Amino acid sequence: MPTARAYAAPSATEPLVPTTIERREPGPHEVLIAIKFAGICHSDIHTARGEWGAISYPIVTGHEIAGVVEAVGSEVTKYAVGDRVGVGCYVDSCRKCVNCLAGEEQYCLEGEIGTYNAIGRDGKPTAGGYSTHITVEEDYVLRIPDGLDLDVAAPLLCAGITLYSPLKTWEAGPGKQVAIVGMGGLGHMGVKIAHALGAEVSVISQSLKKQDDAFRLGADHYYASSDESTFEDLKGRFDLIVSTVSSDLDLDAYLGLLALDGTFVAAGLPENPMSFGPGSLVGFRRRLAGTKNGGIRQTQEMLDFCAEHGLGAEIEVIPAEKINEAWERVVASDVRYRFVIDTSTL
């Protein structure tokens, strides 16, 4: 088996350390990818620190992967050595349930196999993109268009698709008023994508400190949630609100910002359950929804869309030795807007 250099979390409380892991030789339908860049997602931190459930340590996280095909299995037809490719939040699924057959593998009824913190078909724990190589079945690999540099493309495999999917599902576009709640790793991509889709885009963030960035990335309006007048002035304004934040929200206040038939979509995961009064929905036929990421087909569509419109993530590229520092900065919201690991430094 080929070996790969990696960074792993030994436990929930220890810093990440350099290590070596094994990767599979490509099976008949698999490709071996030389990872060039790996984005740092807050989910990596939540998972490795045991905040979302029990973990088997050591764990190698990372599900925003961009690289180049290094080897292919004997029956691979979709990719060749040298192709620019990506891997997102999962590397397999059951392939036979109604959702998988519909191209919605992220909602696999048997549970998709995560890029890390899961058990693969080989019976071994999956390990993510904080490494130099990964072996993946070709149907779960994405092609990165030539119009996208690999470093800015890596975060699209999670942050990009997590916002593209709800914006497409609930038809953001010309004539639609769209609000993005939160201006972080997810939110900044929501602004870019909603603007490129032709919607009128508002950002609702805790303060005004990222206002200039929001306008630069395509926002038409910017509001501070800490200003009580915001929720009065914007009542009934939006056709679609996508929340990217992990902090607890006054859900009734945000539902009150929806127009008739408007939809509030939760893309972030607040720590505590959120409650709301049914009247916040029934009065104007509003909807409350959730979203995960996207299927392979839609993720490829997103990558092609981003290449066509020149949309990449706003990134800060770091060497491996700064991963632990970057994690602390992510927790402190001190990044604009995605850290990306140069895996040649592992």
Automatic annotation (TrEMBL):
<dbReference type="InterPro" id="IPR020843">
    <property type="entry name" value="ER"/>
</dbReference>
<dbReference type="InterPro" id="IPR013149">
    <property type="entry name" value="ADH-like_C"/>
</dbReference>
<keyword id="KW-0479">Metal-binding</keyword>
<dbReference type="Pfam" id="PF08240">
    <property type="entry name" value="ADH_N"/>
</dbReference>
<feature type="domain" description="Enoyl reductase (ER)">
    <location>
        <begin position="11"/>
        <end position="341"/>
    </location>
</feature>
<protein>
    <recommendedName>
        <fullName>alcohol dehydrogenase (NADP(+))</fullName>
        <ecNumber>1.1.1.2</ecNumber>
    </recommendedName>
</protein>
<comment type="similarity">
    <text>Belongs to the zinc-containing alcohol dehydrogenase family.</text>
</comment>
<keyword id="KW-0862">Zinc</keyword>
<dbReference type="InterPro" id="IPR036291">
    <property type="entry name" value="NAD(P)-bd_dom_sf"/>
</dbReference>
<dbReference type="InterPro" id="IPR013154">
    <property type="entry name" value="ADH-like_N"/>
</dbReference>
<dbReference type="InterPro" id="IPR047109">
    <property type="entry name" value="CAD-like"/>
</dbReference>
<dbReference type="InterPro" id="IPR002328">
    <property type="entry name" value="ADH_Zn_CS"/>
</dbReference>
<dbReference type="GO" id="GO:0008106">
    <property type="term" value="F:alcohol dehydrogenase (NADP+) activity"/>
</dbReference>
<dbReference type="GO" id="GO:0008270">
    <property type="term" value="F:zinc ion binding"/>
</dbReference>
<dbReference type="Pfam" id="PF00107">
    <property type="entry name" value="ADH_zinc_N"/>
</dbReference>
<dbReference type="InterPro" id="IPR011032">
    <property type="entry name" value="GroES-like_sf"/>
</dbReference>
<keyword id="KW-0560">Oxidoreductase</keyword>
